[in-house]
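User: For a reading group we're discussing how well predicted structures match intuition. Take Ubiquinone biosynthesis protein. Before you show the prediction, I'll give you the sequence so everyone sees exactly what went in.
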Amino acid sequence: MADGQLEVILKMARTINPQIESDRPFEIDLEKLRQLPAGTLGCEVARFLDEQGFEPIASGDWIQRNHDVWHVLTGLSASTEDEFVLQAFTRAQVFRPSCAILVLVGLIGGKCAIGQIIKGLKHGKLATRLIDWDVASDWETPLSEVREKLGIQPFID
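Assistant: Thanks. Here is the predicted 3D structure of Ubiquinone biosynthesis protein, as structure tokens, for the group to look at:
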């Protein structure tokens, strides 16, 4: 996704969504995360960002700044369909009108399958409320243990 498109989506989300913990500190230090052992949450987040050529999202509320961490937790890629599925997962976790709108646009436009959206909603409802989780406390924890602790079933086939 181009930087301009991302900025438009982030601005729309900030406009229509209730802001969740906008002042809550959260920062991704890629250099530190790259140094962590393979398989840890932090290392996997850094790998995901590096492979996609993404920089950590530094603006918006807590949900927006953690978006890429949620990709790693769920095992969802940065593909168009997986982005829509992650929006469904996110909508099941918190009240986000933009998530519902994006999912509907994806379904109407044939960019995602209803079965995957239902799976995203189900996984989001089954998982622990991620906004109550201290991400930084688990950077050095193996990703599989973090998923187990949070009740997240990865979407990886």
